[in-house]
Amino acid sequence: MRGDTRRRAYAWVGTALLAALAVGCSSDPVEPVTTEPWVEGGLPEYCGGRGGDLASFWELVHASCAVAQDGDVRQGEALEEVLSRLPEDRTAEFGRTFRRLNNDLVIITEVADDLCAPGLGLAEDLGTDYRSWVIAHGQDAYEAVLDDPARLRDFPDATAGCGLGEFFGAAATGNPVEGEREQSEAAGPALSHAAAAAGQ
C-alpha cells in the first residue's frame, strides 16, 4: 500500500513540477535554510530545547541536529548512528515517544497541506513524513507549532521540507528505508518547487 501511495505521490510531484516550471519557477534544488547556522557561533535555533519531561528524547534529536539539519536523509543517518550506541530498551522507548509526538502533531495537517500541496493535501504518508521533518528540528520548533500550528508558516524552510522527513522518521522508529534515497532526495525539492509555485 505504501509503495502504491509513494508512486502516486511521485507522479503528482512530477506533474506539479512541470506546472511549476511552466510558470517560471527555478528548477534548481531547494536547500533547507537550516543547513546554515542561524545563530552566529552556535547551532541553528531549530536545534534548541529546554529539557523537561522528555529531555532524554530531545537530547538525542538534538545530537542528530548538530550533525545535519535537513530533517531527512543526512539527519536520519546521524540519528541512526546516535541510536546504534544505545541499549535496545532505550531505542525502543525513543521510537515509542517519537510515534506519540508525531501523532500529536496531526493538528498541523491543515497548515502543512496548504503549504505543501494547496487544494490537494499531503495524504497520510507524506503528512506523517512532514511531521517527522518538524520533529527533527528539535524541541523548540516542535513545541511552537504544537502550541500554534500557524507558526509553521514562519519557518523559513517550511516549503523546503515538503516531501522530506521519511528517512528521519524511519531511523527514529527503527525501520530504516533502503534503496529509495535518490527518489526521496529528488521528491523533496520537486514538491518544494510545486508548493512555491502554488503560492505565487
UniProtKB/TrEMBL annotation:
Residue ranges occupied by any DUF4240 domain in the UniProt entry: 56-159
Regions of compositional bias (Low complexity) in chain numbering: 186-200
Keywords: Signal
Signal peptide: 1-27
Chain intervals for the UniProt region annotation (Disordered): 174-200
PROSITE patterns per UniProt: PROKAR_LIPOPROTEIN
InterPro entries xref list: DUF4240 (IPR025334)
Pfam families: DUF4240 (PF14024)
Protein name: DUF4240 domain-containing protein
